[in-house]
Every structure is written in structure tokens, then in C-alpha cells.
């Protein structure tokens, strides 16, 4: 039994307009490549067209899209064995200041499970419980990943802000 409901064309366009940039930034944070991030976002919206459940609220829809985008990005990492291959030269397109560029470079060097929770928490503003539901982990695991991710950033960047 298929529980997916194909949204109307205008609803699809609205959803793409509303979430494409955010999903791209999330996928770029995980994958480190704009081409791969574009592929992941395209695959996410394809899955939205073919397998989206009936959503109870806009927040439910957004959380579902984030979960799918994260899973697709993880699958791409596993399939391409690209751990550690990050296109740092592309970063300048997505940041406003040199400081943001430096921070994003450091975040991109983290393992995927840490950079995903850091992105969702600090950039998208989700609470630990919400992130846990999206990633199918406990809020305690989210908090631990945030803690370890911050510790790794401090070690990479230096406690005084210098490398």
C-alpha cells in the first residue's frame, strides 16, 4: 500500500522555492561539493514528488525534506567513498565574510555526523529534540554530537581563535 500523496504543481513549486536553498546549504555542508549538493537536492525533490507522505504541518514537511536530504547525502558519501574530499575553493560562494569562510572550512573538515548536527542546530535553529527526530537519534545523542563537534572545532581552530 502506497501512502504517498503527490502534491499539486503549485504546491510543488512553492515547496521548491521555499526549501531549495536551505537544503542545498545542508547538503553542501555534508558533501563539501556544490555539484554533489545539487544532485542531492534534486534527488530529495524527486523523492518528494514520488514518495512524500501526507504532511500534517509545514514543519512536518520541512523536517521530512531535511531527513531525506541528509539520508541521500549520507548515501552519496558511502557510495562514492568521498570521506575527506572537500572542495574548499567553493566555500567563498556561500559565505559573507572571511571569518565565516574560515569557520565553514573548519566545519567541513569534521566527520559527517558532527557537521550535520552543528548545521541544523546553529544555522537552521532547530532544537536538539527536533534534530533527533529528523536524524532518528536521541536528543542526548544530538547533544553529545554537538559537544564533540564543538570540541573538535576548538582543537582544529585553536582556543584563542588562531590556527
From TrEMBL:
* Every RNA polymerase sigma factor 70 region 4 type domain range: 104-153
Q: Which GO terms describe its biological process?
A: DNA-templated transcription initiation
What keywords are assigned to this protein? Sigma factor, Transcription, Transcription regulation
Which molecular function terms from Gene Ontology are attached? Answer: DNA binding; sigma factor activity
Q: Which residues form the RNA polymerase sigma-70 region domain?
A: 16-82
The cross-references to InterPro entries, in alphabetical order and at most eight, read:
RNA_pol_sigma-70-like, RNA_pol_sigma-70_dom, RNA_pol_sigma70_r2, RNA_pol_sigma70_r4_t2, RNA_pol_sigma_r2, RNA_pol_sigma_r3/r4-like, WH-like_DNA-bd_sf
Checking CDD domains in the record gives: Sigma70_r4 (cd06171)
Family statement: Belongs to the sigma-70 factor family. ECF subfamily.
Its recorded name reads Sigma-70 family RNA polymerase sigma factor
Q: What is the lineage of its organism?
A: Bacteria, Bacillati, Bacillota, Clostridia, Eubacteriales
Amino acid at each position: 500500500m502506497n501512502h504517498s500523496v503527490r502534491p499539486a504543481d503549485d504546491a510543488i513549486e512553492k515547496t521548491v522555492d521555499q526549501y531549495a536553498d536551505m537544503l542545498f546549504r545542508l547538503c553542501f555542508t555534508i558533501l563539501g561539493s556544490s555539484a554533489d549538493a545539487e544532485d542531492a537536492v534534486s534527488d530529495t525533490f524527486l523523492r518528494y514528488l514520488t514518495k512524500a507522505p501526507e504532511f500534517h504541518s509545514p514543519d512536518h514537511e520541512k523536517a521530512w525534506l531535511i531527513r531525506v536530504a541528509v539520508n541521500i547525502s549520507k548515501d552519496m558519501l558511502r557510495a562514492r567513498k568521498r570521506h575527506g574530499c572537500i572542495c574548499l575553493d567553493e566555500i567563498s560562494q556561500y559565505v559573507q565574510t572571511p571569518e565565516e569562510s574560515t569557520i565553514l572550512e573548519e566545519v567541513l573538515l569534521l566527520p559527517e555526523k558532527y557537521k550535520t548536527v552543528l548545521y541544523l542546530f546553529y544555522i537552521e535553529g532547530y532544537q536538539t529534540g527536533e534534530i533527533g527526530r529528523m536524524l532518528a537519534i536521541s536528543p542526548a545523542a544530538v547533544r553529545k554530537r554537538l559537544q564533540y563537534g564543538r570540541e573538535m572545532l576548538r582543537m582544529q581552530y585553536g582556543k584563542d581563535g588562531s590556527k
